[in-house]
Amino acid sequence: MRASWVALLLVLGAVSVPAVVAAQAPSGATQGRPLGEPGPAYPWNKRVGSAAKFARSRRGRVSWAVVSPDGRVRGSHVHRRHSSASVVKAMLLVAYLRRVPNRGLTRRERALLRPMIVSSSNRAATRVHRVVGNRGLRRLARRVRMRDFATAGASWGGTQISPFDQTRFFFRIDSFVPRRHRAYARGLLSGIVGPQRWGVPPATPRGWRIFFKGGWVPPHRVNQVALLERGRTRIAIAVFNQGTPSQRYGERTIEGVARRLLLRVNEFRP
Question: Which residue, 11, 27, 101, 217, has fewest beta-carbon neighbours within 10 Å?
């Protein structure tokens, strides 16, 4: 009698297993891949090679870097110094917020910092630079462990930066902002006005959030650095142009590099 019950239970168990697996299978799962097995790793070396080939075909001096989710920096001319233009405004923001880590910002301070980032106000940046000073920028650069950074007297736009330093800065930017002000800083860097959302933003894959700052001195200098974030996964990209024929040409160079670096990123394990 016991043997017959055991046989019956074995039969029932064998019948029920496929139903459980089917219920757990994710929608659109790839056939032939065992459940729970991660997808293939993102082909960073291939994407970097494609971006490098494209950048070499562009006019002017193009320097760029990408920090992949594992923290590795890749790129071309990653330590070449460029005049920052408005890209340094992200550093001005962080340096200012580090001066007031334990209190909220006043209405006047918000009215100064917001236009500096969101609409890239030069007047606001000059006022913030007067408060922070080159000393504050250098202190932040040391905290980030920048290798190629140099200030340029009273000209905040002439600050010398490199793709290597700026991608590493953006990749960990939250850690350099006082906890009290992190949401505020993220809101500004993700809320750039529409006409300035060229370059990396149109190349950003679906499902990723972007925090970025561009800088330009038409027609020959066009720079941008960005952090892309999806859940806990982060990718930072910086593309700097010197001697570009026009601002629009430089914008397309940045977008072209970013698109090649991020091609089909959602289909892989970054």
Answer: 27
Handedness of CA 211, 217, 218, 221 (dihedral sign): negative
Query: In this structure, are residues 64 and 51 in contact, taking their beta carbons and an 8 Å threshold?
Result: yes
Question: At residue 134, what is the residue type?
Answer: N
Angle at 99 between CA 95 and CA 101, to 5 degrees: 110
Query: What is the radius of gyration, based on Cα positions, of the chain?
Result: 24
pLDDT tens profile 119-135: 999 999 999 999 999 99
> Are the C-beta atoms of residues 94 and 232 closer than 8 Å to each other?
no
Alpha-carbon torsion 144, 146, 152, 153, what sign? positive
Contact between residue 254 and residue 60 where contact means Cβ atoms under 8 Å apart: no
Contact status, residue 40 vs residue 123, Cβ threshold 8 Å: no
pTM: 0.86
Helices within 57-121 (DSSP H only): 89-97, 107-118
Residue 26: asked if its preceding bond is cis (omega within 30°), the reply is no
**d(Cα 228, Cα 67) in Å, to the nearest integer?**
10
Q: Which residues pair with 65 in a beta bridge?
A: 75, 238
Query: Of the given ranges (28-32, 141-145, 249-253), which has the lowest mean pLDDT?
Result: 28-32
Which one-letter DSSP state was computed for residue 60? S
Query: Is residue 115 predicted with pLDDT exceeding 70?
Result: yes
**Measured CA angle at 80 (ends 74, 83), to 5 deg:** 125
Domains of the chain are 41-267 (3.40.710.10)
